[in-house]
Design a protein that fits this description.
rod-shaped, mainly alpha, 2 helices
Length: 55
Amino acid sequence: MRDVYQLLREKEAEIARVRQEIEALRSSIPLLLDDQDIDPADAPRYAALRAANQE
């Protein structure tokens, strides 16, 4: 039988990895969207992300 603490550490590491992947996907959204696809209310947020990604 596996050590429950080791299993817990593995699951926590997996969660951290998935969170990093989600953040990477969120930061790539502005690069994939056309300006016409962006909701005007979200435009300032996407503009800032797009500028940060181009640096």
